[in-house]
Structure formats: C-alpha cells, structure tokens
From TrEMBL:
Span of the entire protein shown here: 20 to 263 of 635
Keyword annotations: Carbohydrate metabolism, Hydrolase
Highest taxon of the lineage: Bacteria
Domain Glucosamine/galactosamine-6-phosphate isomerase stretches: 6-231
Lineage: Bacteria, Pseudomonadati, Balneolota, Balneolia, Balneolales
Cited function: Catalyzes the reversible isomerization-deamination of glucosamine 6-phosphate (GlcN6P) to form fructose 6-phosphate (Fru6P) and ammonium ion.
Gene source species: Rhodohalobacter sulfatireducens
GO molecular function: glucosamine-6-phosphate deaminase activity
Family from the record: Belongs to the glucosamine/galactosamine-6-phosphate isomerase family. NagB subfamily.
Active site: D68 (proton acceptor), H141 (proton acceptor), E146 (for ring-opening step)
Protein name as catalogued: Glucosamine-6-phosphate deaminase
Length: 244
C-alpha cells in the first residue's frame, strides 16, 4: 500500500497492531510483536504511545522481541537499541519489563552462540511472532541480515556491511566508531512471523524498494526473501514507491 505521507502510513500500521492487541486482550491471550529500530518505525511507536495514553490500550499482555543490536554495545550508550526502545516506546507504555527482549550487546563472545539459540527458543516458547515490523537498509538488509544472508539463517552474530556502517557513521560521530558486528534475528526467524509489515519512507529508499519487490529473489538483497512470505504487507510513502 502506498500512502501520501509516512505519518499516515504509520498510523495505519499502529492501528492494525492495536487491533490485534485489543482482540487478544479481550480473550486473555498474549500478543507477540517483533520490533525494529531506526527512524522508520518512530511514528508507529509514537502512535502506539498515543493509543495507550488516550485510549487506554494496554500492553500488559504484549511480549516483544527486537530484531537486532550492535555488537559490542552497552545498553546505556546513546546508539544502543535498548536505549532507543526504552526512550521511544517502552518507558511510555505499561509493558512488563520481563516481556521485553532485545539482543544483548554485552554478551561475551564465547557465549554469543548459546545466547542466540536461547533467543530463538524464547520466541518459539512465546508462540512465535504474530507481527514483525521491518525497516530496510540501503543494502537491502532486514534486521542486520546483510547481503549474503541465506533464507534459513537464525539469530546470530553478523559482520556489518561497509555501506551500513557508513550510513550509521553520523550517529556514532565517525565511521571508525561504528561497531563492526551485530546480533540479529535471521532471515528465517523473520520469515516465520505470521504477519510482516515492511515499511520505507523517502526517496533514498526508492531504489532498494524497487529491487526488493521487483527483482529476483537473491541473498544479495535479503529483503527479496519477503517475496516468498505469504503475509507480508509493504507500506510505503509516495517517495519510497517512486521507482515502482
Ligand atoms: C538499521 C537497523 C535496521 C533498519 C535500518 C534502516 O540498520 N538495524 O533494522 O531497518 O537501520 O534505518 P532507518 O529506518 O533509519 O532508515
């Protein structure tokens, strides 16, 4: 779907998430959300906060799993995705702390493999992701699944693409300060979600959106794997859709 602005599009995504949460709340069931960082989902989060504050939408039965985190990364750092999620969403809603899962950028290297397996296990134990929201990187990455990530990949430690590191340079006050690695859910983890919203705003995303939606499915552009997921909704503003 194409909307005139990111703000309108974000409200639609937020209201669909809210509808599922309300329905589940009514029957006493949990809602499991896969969440993303970056600038793309910001207005979805602000709308969910508004629905909580103004309409009493309760997140007490919501369980969340974030896609990724830089590695290494301390949760207090300003670039940390833990901090991002707290500031933009979790601190402003009534979600129990124990329901929040974000890959831990402080795990010692020798424990990362086990940690990632445990992250997958927790997603399964929660019943799997009901909704996963995604932005997209200039390399066609989803989460931090860079070019070369296969369709079956699971949560793991990955090496960031140079393009991704250069896009993150401003946030880290210089490219040399951008971590070289990240922990990310795999493409396979993402594709298991029952519903996926891929969102992109603005002209800089137009090229990668065209390749992702209209190009052949290839691990060179991991977002193309979404073409094989039967319940993915692509949500664009006019600028991001301008090359389609
Ligand atoms: C980072 C995140 C991705 C996100 C991408 C795009 O690489 N790990 O999940 O989709 O940035 O960022 P933005 O939404 O700011 O364009």
């Amino acid at each position: 779907s194409i909307y005139s602005t990111a703000s309108k599009a974000s409200k639609v995504v937020a209201s669909e998430i809210a509808n599922l949460i309300r329905a589940r709340n009514q029957t006493g069931q949990n809602t499991v959300l896969g969440l993303a960082t970056g600038s793309t989902p910001l207005q979805v989060y602000s709308e969910l906060v508004r629905l909580h504050e103004e309409e009493g939408l309760s997140f007490k039965r919501v369980i969340t799993f974030n896609l990724d985190e830089y590695y290494p990364m301390h949760p207090e750092e300003i670039q940390s995705y833990v901090r991002f999620m707290n500031e933009n969403l979790f601190d402003k809603i009534d979600i129990p702390q124990k329901n929040i899962h974000i890959p831990d950028g402080t795990i010692p290297k020798e424990k990362v493999y086990e940690y990632c397996k445990e992250y997958e296990r927790k997603i399964d134990e929660a019943g799997g992701l009901d909704i996963q929201i995604l932005g997209i990187g200039r390399t066609g990455h989803i989460g931090f699944n860079e070019p070369g990530s296969l369709a079956k990949t699971r949560t793991r430690l990955v090496t960031l693409d140079e393009i991704t590191r250069s896009d993150a340079a401003a946030a880290f006050y210089g490219e040399e300060r951008v971590p070289r690695q990240a922990i990310t859910m795999g493409v396979g983890t993402i594709l298991k979600a029952k519903k996926i919203y891929l969102m992109a705003w603005g002209e800089p995303k137009a090229k990668v959106i065209k390749k992702s939606l209209e190009g052949e499915v290839t691990e060179q552009i991991p977002a193309t794997f979404l073409q094989n997921h039967e319940n993915t909704k692509v949500i664009l503003d006019e600028a991001a859709a301008s090359e389609l």
